[in-house]
Amino acid sequence: MSRSDNLMLANVSRRGLLKGLAGGSALMLAARWDLGLANEKAQFGAGAMPGGWVDNPNVFINIGSDGLVTIVNNRAEMGQGIRTSLVMVAADELGADWDQVRVQQADANQEKYGNQNTDGSRSMRHWYDPMRRAAAAARLMLEQAAADEWDVPVHEVRAEVHKVVHPATGREAGFGELAKAARELDVPGRDALVLKSDSELRFIGKESGLINGELKSAHPKAIDGEDIVSGKAIFGADIDLEDTLYAVVARPPVYGAKVKSVDDSDALKVSGVKKVIRIEGTGQPAAFSPLGGVAVVATNTWAAMEGRRALKIDWDNGPAGDNASYTTEAYRQSLEKAAQSPGKVVRQKGDAEAALKEADQRVSATYYMPHMAQSPMEPPVAVVRIRGGKAEAWAPVQNPRATREGIAGLLEMDLENVTVHQTLLGGGFGRKSKPDFVTEAAHVAKEFEGQPIKLQWSREDDIQHAYFHAVSVDHLEAGLDADGKATSWRHRTLSPSIASLFAPDPKHKGEFELGMGFNTMPFSIPAIRLENPPAPAHVRIGWFRSVYNLPHAWAIQSFAHEMSVAAGKDHRDYVLDLLGSDREVHNLTVGDGWNYGEDPDLYPIDVARMRRVIERATEEAGWGRETGKGRGLGLAFHHSFVSYTAIVFDVEVDDDGELTIHRADIAFDCGPQANPERIRSQIEGACVMGIGIALQSEVTFKDGVAQQDNFDSYLIPRMPDAPEVVRVHLIDNPDDAMGGVGEPGLPPVAPALCNAIHAATGKRIRRLPVGDQLRG
Amino acid sequence: MIKLTINGEQHELDIPDNMPLLWAIRDIVGMKGTKFGCGIGQCGACTVHMDGVATRSCSTPVSAVQGEITTIEAMADDPVGQKVQQAWLDLGVAQCGYCQGGQIMNATALLKKTPAPETGEIVDAMEGNLCRCGTYNRILAAIERAADQKEANS
User: Locate the 2Fe-2S ferredoxin-type domain: which residues (chain B) (predicted)?
Assistant: First the structure.
C-alpha cells in the first residue's frame, strides 16, 4: 500500500478529545491512548514498565505559530545523548527542520509521560516506536490542516521539511502557519499512521560525526553541545535560586551505624554556618533512603564543608551489626572458600560432575572483581524547596518517579504536591538511579520553610557512601576431552545481591542478577552446572553500569580463554566452537525468566549474532597476525541488554611491566541504530571505563569503612590510560529488534584486556584490578 | 574584602581568605560553568585560567589568587578558546558534559602556550583532567583539530 493510499484511511473519530491551548504551549490529552493497540504483549518491553509508554503527540510535540517545534524528552540525559537522539527520531518522522527544533525536559510525571526511569539501556529501545508514532500523528494532523485549508483531499498533500505542500497547485504552508488549525484536530488513530520509509529519513540511522578517525557530516549536532562547551549547560548544582542555603552531611562511616552524640559548638562558630541538623537514617535495608547523620547548613558550600569539618561526632556502630567488621581481604577469602562447596543450582544440563571426573583434562580458575563506586564526575547534588505544603526539587536523577515518591514519603505529602524537575546529569552510571541524596535535601529543607536548600555531596561522600558495585568471586571448572573439546562446565558465582538493599539479605543473586550473563551463558557444552553459593551484603549494593554482567563476563570470558590455552587452540576458533551452531537460545531454556524484560520471541539469544561480532572484531583487528615479543591480541565478547559486543585489544607490556594499549577494535550489534554517532560515543566511552575496571578501580573496606575517598586513591582512567586508537564497528542489522546501547559495551572490556595481557606476557590475571600485578 | 577580576569584571567579596576560588566563583559570584568534581585538584573539572595559566580553582584559596581569572564563560570571546569549542562540537566530544568546561580550559591554555603540540604533549597536559564518560580519544582528536585550524588560519 502506498503512503497516500493509507492517508485516505485517516480516521477522524476522536474529535473532542483535545483541549486546545492558546499561543505556543503544549496540548494535553486527558485520556491515555489505548495501550493494547500496538503492544500485543504488555508483559514485556516498554508496556511492562511502570507507567508504560505514551505516544500521544500532544504530550510530546508542540508547534508554535512561529514554526518552532518543541519536543519533550521524558528520559534522563546523562551523557548517552538521549535528548538529541530521541528528539531527532521525532523530528525526522515529523519532517522538522533541525534548526527549528527545541527540546523541553519533562518533569517527573509518569502518568503523563510514561516510564521515565532511565536505567537498563532502555531509553531508545522502549521509546523509538512511541516517539515515531507521536511524530507521525502530528505530521498527519498538519497535513490534514493544510488539506482542510485548501479544500483538497488529504492524500493530495504531503509534508516536506517544515512545510506541507500541494504539488498539484504548488501551494505550500509552513508548519507554523498550520499549527493552530492542526491543534484543533483530533489525534488520528494509530491505524491511520504511516511511518516514513527508510529512504525518506534524513537523520535516523544516518552515520555522522567522527567515524574511526574520519569526520563525516555532523548533522544534527548534539542538542546540548553548545551549552556544554560554553559552560551554560545546567546540571544539578547549577540551579540558582534566590535565598538558597547550602548543606553538606556527615554520614555514618559504617553502613547501618547511627549518631551516638554530636558536639556542634565549633561548627556553629564557622562564619556562614546557620544550623546543624540531625538526620535520622532508616537503618537497614536502606533502599533509597538517606543513611542519616548530621547536616550542616550554611550560606555557601564552603562554609558548610568547613562546618562539617568542625563537628565532633561519636558514631554508634551497634545498629550496624557485623557490617562494622567488614574487611575486604577476609571477605574475599570467605567467598573463595565458599566457592569450593556446591551452591544453589540454577541451571543444569547433563551430569557435569561426572563429566568433570571423566575428563582427559581439567581446567579450573577463580576470578575476583572488587567493589567499585560509580563516581560520576558530578557528585550527587539536589536542590529542594518546601513551602505551603508543597515540595519542589531540582535534581540530576535517573529515576524521577522514585525521587518524587521518596520526597512525598518523607514529608507525608500526596504525590501531586511534589514536583521534580530534571536537570542534566553530570554522569549517572547507576548512582543516580537512587535518589537518596534528594530525600536527604528534603530532610534539611523541611527545617527551612520556603527556602531552597542545595545539598552537595563531596567526592569523599560519593566514594565512601556509594551504592557499591557488588564484589564477586567466580569459580569455574571445565573438563576437556583428548582433543581439547569441552565436555563439561561448572560455574559457581558469588556476590552480594542488590535485593539486600530492599529486603532482608537473601544472600543469593536474584533472577535479574543471574540473568545478566550467568544463566544466559550461550556455550554449547554437553554438561553444564551453574551454582550460586551464598554471599552476604555488608554495604549498600547497587547498580553500576552493566551491573552483574561485569563479573560474569569477566569470569566466563577469561575462563574460555584459559580453556583454549589448555587445549592448545586458537582462542577465536575455540570460542566459535564453544558457541556451537547458529541458533536462537530462548531464555527460559537456560533457566532465565527475565531476559532484560523483553519478549523472548523478539529477543532470543542469537548465536549467529554473537558469532558475527566475534568475526568482525577479530577481522578488523587482524587476528592471528604476528605481534612480536611483549605484544598480543586479546578477545572477549558478551550478550547483555539484548545487544551483542565483541572486542579485541592489541596491547604491549614492556620489561618493566608498563602496559600500552595500542588499539581496541569493537564490533557492536544492537539491531537497528537510531543515532549511530551517539552509539559510537557510548561504545568508545564504555571501552575507556572498562579499562579502569580492569586496571585501576577498587574500593576496599576495613572494619566497615571504605578505604578510598577521592581520585587520588580511587583510581579511574585518565587520558594516558585510553587506547591509542579505538575503532567501533557497528553491525548493519536493521532486521532484528532494537537492543540497548549504554551498558552492553562495558562487560567484555576487562576480560579482553586481560586476555591480551596473557597473549603478550603469558601472565594470567584472575584478580581485578590489575594494579601492579604486571610489575616484577 | 577579597578583590577578584573574573572575565574582566572586578568583584569585591566579603569572604574568608581560605575559601577556594571555585566556591567564590560558583556560590558568591554566581557563575556556574566552573564545576566541582573532587575538591583536591585531582580531576580538573574546576579548571580556570589565572593570567592565562590553567589553574585548579578548587584548591586555590582566594587569598592566593594573583592576576586575572578567566572562566569557561569567556572562551567564546577568546580566539583560541573559540577554535577549541568548535573542534569539540565538530567531533561530538561531550557525553554528559560535566567535565568538558575544565577540559576546554586546560586545552585552551595548552594551545596558547604550545600552538602545535605533539600527541604526547597533549596527553601529558591533559592527564589531570578526568572524564568518567571516557571521551579521551575524542578530546585528543579535538585538540589536534583545533591546533591544525589555528595554524591554517594564522
Answer: 1-75
